[in-house]
Design a protein that fits this description.
single chain, alpha/beta, six-stranded parallel beta sheet
């Protein structure tokens, strides 16, 4: 009889012409237990067994589907030290598609109503599974300042998870990161809400050609007190809206994001997963959001267990549901205690039905009821292809930021012998970042491998030291290698490479312990300083003291101390975590086969005492000890060529929502063809809410051949020139605005002040 019920429901639905009607009919057939199951999203990487070529569904999964059929599964395909899945024990793309088809078939054929499962997977910089494409992490993606490129990247990521049977990708991460001590800076798009919002909008559009994108994390997660992950965010309503919610608003209102995830932190004492103002008034009412809201993993339970806003798990479930959280990631509270909350009168069945409606509508929107299965052969053929790997290299190329160059780059014919030195020169996991699956080494090109494969010079190698372990060092070997070389490529920085010795919290965050790994970054690895760890600075001092030409390369997940490299290096670059093609990308840049044009999406401090240091703060005086300006500011980046700005024109117009048209000319006056990132900033001269020094309001990455001139046009809308106050909301105030255009936030060659009525 269990197999007949889905067919009977389907026959009833055939006559319905509207999707909403189908949702209501299905909802009316559901028991309370079935509703609770639709709102639960447990961890799924233990829901199967594998031995050789055999796959089977685990008793845990089968039992859950019998007692309370699930609506979602999260991270079934995840492979990493937390899930204990390796390249050998994890699932390759064809196996992934086969398994999810098995799970989907069980849900459809062996549950009373046959409601398909939604499978959710991590996709911050590629699908976190074996055999997929690994792109640069978020901070590197943002360094491209190229929305169209990232839209293509989003499409590749979404396509790869959809081919394997999943329909929801967790990403992009749009938290505004203004404290480099925080462990998750690498996942973000940096410090600016406009840049993050535009790039997030395009990534979402790319992903949602195939799957549902999930924005992370709502909200103000990137400014934790003391730099501690999930700590409270101290921010008022005005700055919350203008600085920390704008990126989400853009990705929802313009990108069309279909889901969001709440963050672990509190804002003004209110947990984000229990914040009705945030999730109802802002998200659904103001932004007209029609999708689903996930909690972060176990964030609903945290309302009770760590934030102590609820007296018990049932009350925590009630607070989250009534605030607007549809899906409990982890499933502990909704699956275990929502029934109790209903019996105690903490929630009404109408609250539960409303959340279930959102879930069912998403499943219909994604076509799950019509096409729940995937082609296993197609997954094998089109996931993790060579073409996708080449595209990942292109993203790495465009993300590389050249911070200093005295003319040593690009290398000329006089460079015959190169010493590649440093802890990040030949460690593939150190260049991939957090949320990365175990990799086949043949698919990853390290810095050393990329330079060797270039074949332009004899290559010597010495590790020199580790990222953190001071016992793992041989500085003399590094000195000997440098002595024999014409030039040194010194590769230092940090690592988010998880290993199988590390312990993890229930949320998947790493636990910092006495075990010394290379890991100094990644979720859970907050820092009290931004200094290089281990013997890295000693290694750098030894190499710089030799007087050899040195190109220093930082592979890092957060802005680290660059003072020594800035002072002593002949050239300095950051590649952040550049992904699977990072080594080939750097080699192309070193020999001039690619002209770097990445720009910083986050400021690099001179010292810890400056933090927070971001470009849009109101102007201040210097410190007693040092300048208040960062070492490298937001938007900064060099090229092998130079650009000249001229002919700024700012016209006030009244065309629909547009208030200003801004045009300028940019000429390539240097010796190479190259890209320039033209940046538009605005300062509101007088406003009812204290204005910032300047705000990014437009940017264009344009390619200009040497000797040629490009005209760049921007349009400023009423919203671009509006201010937010809790009394009036967003509103435009006529007055004077200073418009600035240039190559970085600190180098605006052109400016004009206009009155806008």
């Amino acid at each position: 009889m269990r197999r007949l019920a889905p067919l009977l429901i389907l026959l009833v639905m055939v006559s319905c012409t509207k999707k909403q009607d189908k949702v209501e009919i299905l909802l009316s057939q559901m028991t309370l237990e079935e509703k609770f199951g639709q709102l639960s999203c447990p961890i799924g990487f233990n829901f199967y067994g594998k031995e050789g070529d055999s796959l089977w569904l685990a008793d845990d999964f089968l039992g859950r589907m019998d007692t309370m059929p699930l609506g979602f599964c999260w991270a079934v395909l995840r492979a990493d030290p937390w899930s204990r899945k390796t390249v050998e024990t994890g699932l390759h793309p064809k196996e992934s598609a086969k398994l999810l088809n098995m799970m989907q078939r069980h849900a459809i054929e062996n549950t009373r109503l046959g409601i398909p499962l939604l499978f959710c997977e991590e996709t911050p910089h590629g699908h976190m599974a074996v055999g997929t494409t690994v792109f640069p992490t978020g901070i590197g993606q943002a360094s491209t300042w190229n929305p169209e490129l990232l839209e293509q990247m989003g499409e590749v990521m979404g396509y790869e998870i959809r081919l394997q049977g999943a329909q929801v990708g967790y990403g992009p991460v749009l938290d505004i990161a203004r404290d480099p001590r925080w462990s998750r800076v690498e996942e973000t798009m940096g410090e600016d809400p406009f840049l993050s919002g535009v790039l997030g909008e395009y990534i979402v559009q790319g992903m949602q050609k195939n799957v549902c994108a999930t924005l992370k994390h709502l909200a103000a997660y990137g400014i934790p007190q003391g730099g501690h992950n999930a700590a409270t965010a101290n921010v008022g309503p005005n700055r919350l809206m203008t600085d920390y919610l704008l990126s989400f608003e853009k990705a929802i209102c313009y990108g069309g994001a279909k889901s969001v995830m709440t963050s672990y932190n509190t804002i003004d004492g209110i947990p984000c997963s229990a914040n009705a103002w945030l999730l109802q008034e802002v998200l659904r009412n103001s932004w007209n959001f029609k999708g689903v809201v996930f909690s972060d993993l176990n964030a609903v339970n945290a309302i009770y267990a760590t934030q102590h806003v609820a007296a018990d798990p049932a009350e925590a479930a009630a607070l989250a549901l009534k605030a607007g959280v549809d899906i409990d990631l982890g499933g502990y509270n909704y699956g275990g205690f929502l029934k109790e909350a209903l019996q105690r009168g903490l929630v009404e069945e109408a609250d539960i039905d409303n959340a279930v409606r959102h879930v069912l509508k998403l499943k219909y929107d994604l076509g799950l009821f019509d096409n729940p299965y995937v082609d296993e052969a197609l997954a094998e053929a089109e996931v993790g292809t060579k073409e996708n790997a080449q595209f990942a290299k292109q993203v790495a190329l465009e993300s590389a930021v050249l911070l200093k160059n005295d003319g040593i780059l690009p290398f000329g014919i006089n460079v015959n012998k190169v010493a590649v030195i440093g802890p990040n020169a030949d460690n593939m996991y150190n260049q991939l970042g957090d949320y990365t699956a175990p990799q086949d080494p043949d698919r990853i090109v390290t810095i050393l491998e990329g330079i060797r494969e270039k074949g332009r010079a004899e290559v010597l190698y010495a590790k020199g030291c580790a990222i953190r372990d001071e016992n793992d060092a041989d500085l003399e070997e590094a000195v000997r290698a440098a002595q024999k070389a014409d030039v040194v490529v010194l590769v230092v920085g940090g690592s988010s490479a998880r290993d199988f010795k590390t312990s993890y919290e229930e949320t998947g965050a790493a636990i910092v312990d006495n075990h010394i790994s290379d890991m100094d970054c990644g979720e859970g690895y907050d820092r009290s300083t931004i200094k290089l760890l281990g013997k890295q600075e000693e290694l750098m001092q030894r190499i710089y003291a030799m007087g050899k030409p040195v190109v220093t390369v930082y592979i890092q997940g957060r802005p680290l101390d660059m003072n020594l490299a800035n002072e002593k290096s002949n050239a300095l670059l950051t590649l952040w975590y550049p992904g699977m093609g990072g080594g080939s990308a750097l080699a192309d840049i070193l020999w001039g086969d690619y002209n770097p044009a990445g720009r910083l999406p986050v400021s690099v401090p001179r010292s810890m005492g400056q933090i927070p240091v971001y470009y849009s703060q109101p102007a201040t005086g210097d410190y007693v000890e040092e300048s208040a300006k960062p070492l490298y500011t937001f938007g900064f980046g060099l090229s092998y060529t130079q650009f000249e700005y001229s002919d700024l024109q700012v016209e006030t117009v009244s065309k629909k929502d547009t208030l200003c048209k801004v045009t300028c000319s940019v000429k390539n006056i240097g010796p190479y063809d190259g890209d320039e990132v033209v940046q538009l900033y605005v300062h509101d001269v007088v406003a009812s809410v204290a204005p910032t020094s300047k705000l990014l309001k437009g940017f264009r990455r344009v390619h200009i051949n040497k000797g040629e001139t490009c005209q760049v046009v921007f349009y400023l809308t009423q919203r671009d020139l509006s201010v937010y106050s809790k009394e009036k909301g967003w509103h435009f105030e006529p007055g004077e605005f200073t418009v600035m255009v240039g190559g970085s936030s600190e180098n605006c060659a052109l400016s004009d002040t206009v009155e806008v009525k």
